[in-house]
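Internal tracking record. Fields below are filled automatically when a chain is submitted to the structure queue. Please do not edit lines marked as system-generated. If the sequence contains nonstandard residues, flag them in the REMARKS field before resubmitting.
Queue: standard
Priority: normal
Entity type: single polypeptide chain
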Amino acid sequence: MVALSDIQQAKQRFGIIGNTPGLLRAVSRALQIAPTDLSVLITGESGTGKEFFPQIIHTNSHRKHGRYIAVNCGAIPEGTIDSELFGHEKGSFTGALADRKGYFEEADGGTIFLDEVGELPLTTQARLLRVLESGEFIKVGSSKVQKTNVRIVAATNVNMIKAISEGKFREDLFYRLNTVPIELPPLRDRMDDILLLFRKFSNDFAEKYRMPAIQLTDDAKNLLQTYRWPGNIRQLKNVTEQISIFETSREVSADIIKSYLPSYNVERLPVVSGSEGKDGFLFGNEREMLYQIIFEMRKEMNELKSIVDNLAASENGHGLKVYTPEHNTTITHPSVPVVKTFHIDKDSTEDVHDESVFEEASLSLEDAEKEMIRKSLERNNGKRKKTAEELKISERTLYRKIKEYNLE
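SYSTEM-GENERATED OUTPUT FOLLOWS
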């Protein structure tokens, strides 16, 4: 267990401000694993101060007299990163005019800090895995295996589990680097530290620019503590410097601070901002415009569904019924005849009534009206024929009765 005095001493040495449990836990873990040679992976959002922890580990290890090299993996082009890390032989590629030592060779006996390790190409990840497993590497353009004795401390703001699932990072390399994980909390989870950091930055810039330090009103303090700080400590430092330079008044209110803060606290849903759009709406970018169109389409669909439901409720048995399985909706048109198919039981001689399945109509309105007239004529003709047949039957019955009466 690391003593609190050792943690405070490390914080003072490297300028770490704050007393939240997450920060103290990270410093304590860095001091605990410093005497070992275990690989360390530091994770956290951009601007949380990850670059200080490899220095804490290096200066409290037995390698403190060796070299400490920090490498920003995301800033080196993919075509040259292997040469930068492992070195190259003369003539191995265009522009290789002489032999060159890489960072792993230069840091032999010391510590190498790989910042933004999640940005490494897959081919370089394979080379790095070999260094972690056996301490061996091969220069670009060489066939000679060389040994190095370095401790690797890596850092990233990338979601490594997601990167592995997407095939952007090797899973075996992740577990090699993540022997000891250290996670740094974002500034929004260090509410009590925000005012301490602001006061520290304000005093530093007052001394730098030879002016009085900034003082905060109560509403300004509340705003700083409730803001999300997506840029974390780096953003807070930049905002403090801007206020120190541009504001003539040394007492700053919440309204003044708001002018230096992007509106990240707004709920992150599609919003209207930017250039003028349809019906007076403003669109900040194409995505927001598409969201607005989708919402309008949804509103129109709901209105259409309401109209269809009302028509279906008032349907009186005449007209066309169109059945749509997706929405279970019946659409009725008063001038188009019903198209019906019947389910008939072959074993039954009874008529089938009312159990009909309505199919999608393929007729145009004009053809449908013609079909309705034709069927109406057929029904009328059928009624006339039936009436004539009934008259004939009645006449025959009357003659038979008269005959029977005469016989009697």
